[in-house]
Amino acid sequence: MAFHRFKALEAVLTRTPVNVIMPSNKVSEFFGENVFGIDAMREYLSDEAFKSVMSAMEQGTQIDRKMADQVAASMKSWANSKGATHYTHWFQPLTGTTAEKHDAFFEPTEGGRAIERFGGSQLAQQEPD
User: Fold this and answer.
1) Would the pLDDT of 74 be above 70?
2) C-alpha dihedral (71, 74, 78, 81), degrees to nearest 10
3) Quick one: average pLDDT of 22-35?
4) pLDDT band at residue 123 under the 50/70/90 scheme
């Protein structure tokens, strides 16, 4: 086990730094452009779904399963338009740290094929600690 850790550290220490070119000198010009925020929701959600999400955000109401599926489909469409193929669940375990779980928009099916899928049940998940 220690061998693999040392090999991983060795690989990290020999990597070449990536030169990142910022899209603008002002962070405020591109901050949040990859967030499914209110502007993106207004564009991608139906009026009914948008009102449901805003009610949940502002008044703490519940989003039903049918509406969650609409939101998920819209989020997936928006993410795909940005070139995304995977998504991340970011969460805070009770240990006081943070963690991420990475998933893809596709699922393997029978016969060695795959389909793209993202449903309402994947929007909010409880994580075991």
Assistant:
1) yes
2) 150
3) 87
4) low
Reduced 3-state DSSP string for the chain: CHHHHHHHHHHHHCCCCCCCCCCCCCHHHCCCCCCCCHHHHHHHCCHHHHHHHHHHHHHCCCCCHHHHHHHHHHHHHHHHHCCCCEEEEEECCCCCCCEEEEEECEEECHHHCEEECCCHHHCCCCCCC
Range of the domain at 93: 32-122
46 within domain boundaries:
yes
- Per-residue pLDDT, averaged over 79-93, amounts to 82
Number of compact structural domains in the chain: 1
